[in-house]
Write a structure and sequence with these properties.
- The protein folds into 2 domains: about 180 residues, Aldolase class I (TIM Barrel); about 45 residues, no CATH class.
- The protein is about 20% helix and about 25% strand.
- It contains 6 helices and 14 strands.
- The strands form 2 sheets. Strands 1-2-3-4-5-6-7-13 form an 8-stranded parallel beta barrel, surrounded by 4 helices. A 4-stranded antiparallel sheet has the order 8-11-10-9, with no helix packed on it.
Length: about 250
C-alpha cells in the first residue's frame, strides 16, 4: 500500500487524523492550528485559497505558524509560493496548481516544491506517463469541488459568516445534495464521493494517496476501508481518472 495522507476540514477530523498512525502527513486549514497542536512535523498548513484581499494577512499567519514550529505549507496557486518562502516554510503543492504533465511538474520542482498532488483531471494513463524529480500523489478519496467561488450561493451571493460551513446545501435536478465547504471561499462539493480504494493497483507510479475529508464524522473507518481495498457500497464516482475530460 502506498503512503496515505489526510486532508481535514474541521477540528474533530484533525484530532482523529493525529491519532491515526496510517497517515504520513495531514493537510489542515491554518485556522485550526495553534502553538499547542501536537505532531507539528506531520502537518502541512493549508492557507486561504484566494489571496486577492488577504495576502499580507496570510503571510503574517504563516510566519506565526513557523515560529510555533510548523514547517510545511500548501501552495494552492503560484501566488502562494513566495509567501511560503518568505515565511521560511517548506512548499507542498496542491491539486489546484493544475499540474497535468511532466513539464509543469518540473517547473514546480524548480520552485522548491517538495511534492505535489496532480490535477484531478488526469487519467490513469497520463498519470503513469508523468515524469518528475519530486514525489507526487493523487486524490484517492473525497468530495471534489465542482466550483470554488468567493460568494455563497446559499446566501444569495453574500459572504459566509466567519468562513464557517453552515451545513446547508443546494440540490441538483436529480435531487442530489450539493454540500458546501467554506473558508474565505466557498467550495460546492460533488454529491458523489470519489474513491479508488479498490483500484489502487492502477496507480502504481504515484507516491501517495490523499484522503480528502469534508463532512465525514468518522474518518478512521473510511481510512480502514481504503487500506483494505473495499469497494464502496454507497453512490460513488471514479472522477476523471478513467474517462478523462469530456
Amino acid at each position: 500500500m502506498k503512503k496515505l495522507r489526510a486532508e481535514v476540514a474541521d477540528a474533530d477530523q484533525l484530532e482523529q487524523a493525529l491519532r491515526c498512525n496510517a497517515f504520513d502527513f495531514i493537510y489542515a486549514p491554518e485556522k485550526l492550528l495553534n502553538k499547542d497542536t501536537l505532531f507539528k512535523e506531520k502537518i502541512i498548513a493549508v492557507p486561504n485559497v484566494f489571496l486577492g484581499d488577504c495576502e499580507d494577512k496570510t503571510l503574517s499567519r504563516l510566519t506565526e505558524l513557523e515560529k510555533w514550529g510548523f514547517q510545511k505549507a500548501l501552495a494552492h496557486t503560484v501566488g502562494h509560493i513566495p509567501l511560503i518562502q518568505k515565511a521560511k516554510m517548506m512548499i507542498y503543492g496542491g491539486m489546484r496548481l493544475n499540474i497535468t504533465n511532466s513539464l509543469s511538474a518540473e517547473f514546480f520542482a524548480e520552485q522548491d516544491v517538495r511534492d505535489f498532488i496532480v490535477s484531478c483531471e488526469l487519467t490513469t494513463a497520463k498519470i503513469k506517463a508523468l515524469k518528475c524529480a519530486v514525489p507526487f500523489g493523487v486524490i484517492g478519496y473525497g468530495r471534489l469541488p465542482l466550483m470554488v467561488t468567493r460568494r455563497c450561493p446559499i446566501k444569495d451571493g453574500r459572504p459566509c459568516d466567519n468562513g464557517k460551513s453552515c451545513g446547508k446545501y443546494l440540490a441538483d435536478r436529480q435531487g442530489k445534495q450539493i454540500k458546501t465547504l467554506c473558508s474565505n471561499a466557498v467550495e460546492l462539493l460533488n454529491p458523489d464521493i470519489l474513491t479508488i480504494s479498490d483500484k489502487t493497483d492502477d496507480f502504481s507510479t504515484v507516491d501517495f494517496f490523499v484522503l480528502r475529508f469534508t463532512d465525514e464524522k468518522d474518518i478512521i473507518s473510511v481510512t480502514d476501508e481504503f487500506i483494505k481495498g473495499k469497494k464502496p457500497q454507497s453512490r460513488f464516482t471514479r472522477g476523471l481518472y478513467y474517462r478523462g475530460v469530456e
